[in-house]
Amino acid sequence: MTKPTGISGSFHVQINPDGSASGLFVPVAFSKSKSEIEQQVADQFIRSMNAHPVQEKEKFFLSAPRLNQENDFDFTVDSPQGEAFLELMEIAPLKGPYQEAPTHYNVYDFSKTILQGILSKSQSYPQQMANDLFLLIYVTHWSFTLSKLVIACLRYWCASTPLAFRAIFYYAPRGNSGLHDQIYPVSSEILNDFDPEKVRAEFCLNLDPRTWYVQGKGSA
Fold first, then answer.
1. Domain-embedded: residue 189
2. Would you call 171 exposed, middle or buried from its count of C-beta atoms within 10 A (0-12, 13-18, 19+)?
3. pLDDT tens, 11-58?
4. Strands 82-90 and 75-79, bridge-based pairing
5. In this structure, is residue 219 part of a structural domain?
6. Per-residue DSSP letters for 36-53?
């Protein structure tokens, strides 16, 4: 089944022999079917976590995502405790095609929309399971990239809400790597007395990377 995706990618800057700088947007080549896209996202997420470990040379504790059949958990993965399950959830609150998605969002409202998706998924599973269950929330379109304030809101709410998930991660594909963060659980030091109520009026503006360009001379 074909699944639409948005536009994500990375902007590459290079210094030319004459000292000038040039840039190029390199889009992520998403697969076409839902299962292929999810396999691609799961693989790239784990690759990204291993490329940027919390501690040097430390391997990410989840590996080898294997796609399951329909009406089952999305993936079976290997963990230090044995086989575990990984569910995926795309963040795409669309009211039309991806091309018409707004470039900005209200931080609080956007965070609440994502939280409702997390809670809806969590409520589908028992609190206690024989195998650990993990959730990966991800974006395929640049305008839905999570700001630091959105991540902070989700961390705060997830920390105070019973969830079926052992951990929740966020990933935004960017070439062979990407942006990633852990949403839940996190330490009290990371939460750091954050109050979502104080960001109700905050907005995030994401810029279309296809429109970026390099101006001026570089240094060889």
1. yes
2. buried
3. 999 888 888 889 999 999 999 999 999 999 999 999 999 998 777 778
4. antiparallel
5. no
6. HHHHHHHHHHHHHHHHS-
